[in-house]
Amino acid sequence: MQITDYELFAVPPRWLLLKLETDEGLIGWGEPIIQGRLETVRAAVGELIEGYLLGTDPLRTEYHWRKLYQSGYFRGGPVLMSALAGIDQALWDVKGRHYGAPVHELLGGHVRDRLLVHQWIGGAGPEDIAKSAAQDYARGYRAFKLNNPREFRPLETTAAIDRAVERVAALRDTVGDDALVGVDFHGRVSKPMALELLRRLEPYNLMFADQPLTPEHGEAFAALNDRTSVPVSTGERLYSRYDFKPLLVDDAVSVIQPDVTHVGGISEMRKVASMAEAFDVAVVPHCPLGPVAFAASLQVGFASQNVVVQEQDLELHDPESSQRLALLEDPETFQFEDGYVERPTGPGLGIEVDEAYVRQKAQTEVNWYNPVWHHEDGSIAEW
């Protein structure tokens, strides 16, 4: 069997889908994307496939990963690893379909029958957050994540810290102590303010505080982790096992959140999870993306003991109305109940992409860029 062709489809609101074709008629799908850098990743995917993969055997997933990563003198980083991630997902999809098995069975077999998923909670203030959380709790979710705070100056007032804490308090009060609550600082908090905000959030028994600092300040994570009872987390802006290695060695995190679309795909995310397991670090995969990325992430989650919660932004509770799940032939592919997603059993990634619908949506211009925030003095704020 040989790889013969590929196509890329940009679909709203901000996704890039890869279709990988073989001479035996087997097709694999992947989702290579950096949100806001779609065209850059599109070019990288084309370079990698045309330069290294066409005419080769798609079943050699490990060899192809090493070739795409190691053959380039300049390697790693968000663009190349996100391109590699989508290709790797598609190769595993082909491989699973060839053997008639879900990818997680090829990774060693499933270690669980269902996986807890967390729901993202939005809202401008505590009242909005409480309302949104109550609705999602009623829909069955038992794990939640809140982006908090918003614009946060390098040195902030007590009132600004109070507002951030009030948002978390509203979420915790609404869902109670039987639910998991995580907070994503999103890299918006400076080192001088991070420890104080973590200290104020300790009474709310968080499952994690994600990205308390940006990746540029990775050397400061260990000190934060030592000085707070809140599990410190990061990972969505790390792109390989080599990026995670110093954090694990330095005991700088309690939770990691690799993204299967940025961390080099299924092959690399599996290795990252195994590395973390050796350090007793939990894995909560990042995945606010489309159903192809979600399906790929699940394959690692069902084969990895230390993957404990899976992010999703697909409206699993109401698949028929989900614009994201409409990309699948069967929007109810992912079975959601009591806050969990059931183990997928279909071959490969376990999904069937509605190619006709994807082609239709690909006619829409997709030019999403993340917002640019400013502080009140006009300087750039972290988004």
Automatic annotation (TrEMBL):
SMART domains (alphabetical): MR_MLE (SM00922)
Top-level taxon: Archaea
GO MF term set: galactonate dehydratase activity; metal ion binding
InterPro entries, A to Z: DgoD-like, Enolase-like_C_sf, Enolase-like_N, Enolase_C-like, Galactonate_deHydtase, Mandelate_racemase_C, Mandelate_racemase_N_dom
Keywords: Lyase, Magnesium, Metal-binding
SUPFAM superfamilies: Enolase C-terminal domain-like (SSF51604), Enolase N-terminal domain-like (SSF54826)
CDD domains: D-galactonate_dehydratase
Start and end residues of each Mandelate racemase/muconate lactonizing enzyme C-terminal domain: 126-231
GO biological process: D-galactonate catabolic process
NCBIfam families: PRK14017.1 (NF010624)
The protein, known as: Galactonate dehydratase
Record organism: Haloarcula pellucida
